Amino acid sequence: AAPGAGDGGGAGDGGGARDAGIPDGEIVHQTDFESTSSTCAGWNVIGGTARPVAGAHSGEKACLLCASVGNGNASAFLEQRLASSIGGTFTLVAWARNPTPPTPSAPGFSAGIVDESDVGVKVENLPLGTEFQRFELTKAFPPNRELSVYFAARTVAGECVVLDDVTFVRASP
After folding, report:
1. In this structure, is the dihedral angle defined by the CA atoms of residues 161, 28, 59 and 138, taken in order, positive or negative?
2. Could you give the CA distance from residue 109 to residue 132 in angstroms, rounded to a whole number?
3. What contacts 19, CB < 8 A, 6 or more positions away?
4. Taking a C-beta distance cutoff of 8 angstroms, is the pair 159, 108 a contact?
5. 97 sits in which H/E element
6. Each residue of 56-93: pLDDT tens digit?
7. Whose CA is closest to 31, among 78, 87, 99, 100?
8. Using one digit for the tens of pLDDT, what is the confidence trace for 84-124?
9. Nearest CA to 133 among 57, 69, 79, 81?
């Protein structure tokens, strides 16, 4: 299951409060990781580490997500939860790359938009090179759902993925 699915948690950047007042438009608060914080501010990190790094798709900083050493072949997740009282079709767009040339055995990168029941849309094991690649996911959700937007570095311990320019929008009612 995706991080946050069904656990009733409410962390993140307060995006749920903004949702009711913005019928169409950007929901995720932190999209470019330009914060001066030592973490990728506004995002929950599960099973690994995340920090701003140089070498962004745009601007000066991106977010480096790494699986923890000693975490075996598990995943590191970067996640944000949003309450959606209004429902509609939501689109997630992000740019991702490997910080170093990938090993042949590296299982790749995953991302998704899911509700509290882990129902949604996901991309699994997307192979990434060292140049940024754009990806997009779109899914319609009914009202009154807690949505999770997540990225996963599905790697062996110590391997990483770089993320930047994340947008999550309500594309239509």
Report:
1. positive
2. 12
3. 27, 82, 83, 84, 85, 86, 170
4. no
5. strand 88-97
6. 999 999 999 988 765 555 678 899 888 767 778 888 88
7. 78
8. 677 788 888 899 998 887 766 666 788 888 888 888 888 87
9. 57
Encoded tokens for 101? 């040339």
Structure tokens at 118: 């882990």
**Per the structure block, which two tokens stand in for 100?**
């170093």
The answer to whether the CB of 88 falls within 8 A of the CB of 140 is yes
* Residue 159: alpha-carbon gap to chain centroid: 17
pTM of the model: 0.78
Q: Which residue has the tokens 């990168």?
A: 109
Joined tokens for residue 126:
């997307």
Q: Sign of the CA dihedral 31, 168, 84, 161?
A: negative
> Rounded CA gap, 4 and 21, in Å?
24
Q: What residue spans of the chain are helical by DSSP H?
A: 15-19
Mean pLDDT, all residues of the chain: 76
Backbone φ/ψ region at 160: left (φ over 0), alpha (ψ -120 to 50), beta: beta
Buried/exposed 75-112: b ≥16 CB within 10 Å, e otherwise: bbbbbbbbbbebebebbbebbbbbbeebeeebbbbbbb
